[in-house]
Amino acid sequence: MKLTFWGAARQVTGSMYLLELEDNYRILIDCGTNMERNLEEEEENKPLFPFDASSLNLVLLTHAHIDHSGNIPNLYRDGYEGQVLCTTPTYELSRLLLMDAAHLNQKKLQRATGDSNKKKKRMARLEKKGDLYLDKQVDDSLENFVTIAFNQKFQVTDNLWLTFIPAGHLLGAAHIILETKEKGQKKSICFSGDLGRKNYPLHVEPSPVPEVDYLVCESTYGSRLHEDNRSPEEALADVIRRTCINIPGRLIIPAFSVGRTQALLFTLNRLYSEQGFKPIRVFSDSPLAHSTTKVYDRHSKFLNPESQNFKQKHGRLFDFQNLTFIESEKASRAISNHNEPCIIISASGMVSGGRVEQHVAANIGNPYCTILLVGYAAEDTLGWRLLNGQNTLRIKDNEYAVQAKIEKIDVFSGHGDQQDLVNFVKQQSPQKLKKIFLIHGEETSMQTFANRLHDEGFSDVRIPMKGESFEL
Q1: Which CATH code fits 232-408?
Q2: Rounded to whole angstroms, how far apart are CA atoms 200 and 415?
Q3: pTM, to two decimals
Q4: pLDDT score at 376
C-alpha cells in the first residue's frame, strides 16, 4: 500500500492523507481546511485537491474539528461519490461546524458582491481560493455520512477492516486502525487523529491502541509540556476569585465553540454545584457553542464516567444559576451594559474573528477586566499579540491601549503534551513498528518530538513533506 501526505505535513492544519491499497482501493483519512494556506504562492487555476476526487472509494473522519473535516463538501463538489465513515457524535458536530462554515462563506460572498474595485478584488481572491461552499453543499455531503461504533472491527472490503478507538480529544474523536491483507500478508496502520489528555473535563481519556506496523501520529505539543499541574477546577477558581470576587471585575475568556466552551461551562457548574461558589453571571456568547452544548448533553454516554455521574446526581451538565446563552448580535452587544461582575465566554479562542473581538475591544481599556487565554494562539492572531505583551492592539481598524490584565492557563488545552504523545507511541513495540510518521504540528515541534522518540528506541521516524509518498 502507498501513503501520501496531502495536508498537515510540516504544519498544523489541513489534515488529509491518501492511502492506496494494492487493489487500487483509495481511502482518504480526514479532509480538513488548510488555515495556513498562502494564496500568493499558489499557481493560477490550481485545483483545490491534488488528486482526482472521483477516484476515491472511501473517506474516514477522525473528528469534527474544521481542520479535519472542513473540505468534505468540496470533495463532493469535485466528484466524490462515496461515504464518509465516522462516529455518531462526530457526525453531529460536523453538521454544526460545516453549516457554520457555510454561513460564514455566504457572508464573505455578500461582502464581495458589487462593482467597486475593492469588491472585485475580494471576489477574485475568493474565486482563486476555490473552497467556498453553502448550505446545499453541506446537506448533500452529510447525506453520505455513515456512523460506526467505537471499538468494533468493521469490515470494509474483503481485505480491509476498520476500528475506531476513543482518542479523548473531542466528543466522538477517534484513533483509526486500518488492517489490510495484501498478497497474503497482513498489514496494519494507525492514524492518531488528535490525541486528548488525561483528567480533562467531560472527555474520556485516550484508549490504548493495539500494536501496528505503521503509526501516523500528531505532534501539536511535540516540544511542549503542559505548564499548569492544577486541576481545571483549581485553576479556574483561582482566576475567578481574583478577577470577579475579590474585586468587582469582568472576566473574558476567548474559547472555541466546540469542545473548549463545554469544558469551561461544566467546570463552572462543578464550582457552583459542589464547591459553594456564589454564582456569578456567566454569558456564553456563541450560537455555535450553544448548539454544541446540546449535542454534548444529548450524547453524554460518550463522555467520561465523572461527567456521567455528575449528570445523574445534578440532572444537567451545563445549566446552572445565572448562566445565559446569547443568541443574537444585539444581545451580544448589550453585554457591555452589564455593570455587575461577570464572566463572558465567547469565540474564537485565538481572538481571531467571532464575537469575542467586540468584547475585547469594549473592555481592553478597562483595568478591572481580565482576559484569560485558555488555549493555543497562532502567531499574529490577536490572542498571540495579547500573550506577547503588546501595549496596544489593533482591532478592525481601531487602535486600543491595553489596560486590561492578560492571563493564561493551559489546563483546558485539549491536546496531550509531549509526554502524553510519548506514552501513546510507547504502546507500540520498537521492534514491530516499522515507521512512525509525524504530522499536525509545527516543523520545529516535530523535530523535537522525533529526537525524543529516537531516544526512546524508535529508529525510523519520518517527518513527511506535503505530497510525499511512502510505499508501506
Answers
A1: 3.40.50.10890
A2: 10
A3: 0.95
A4: 77
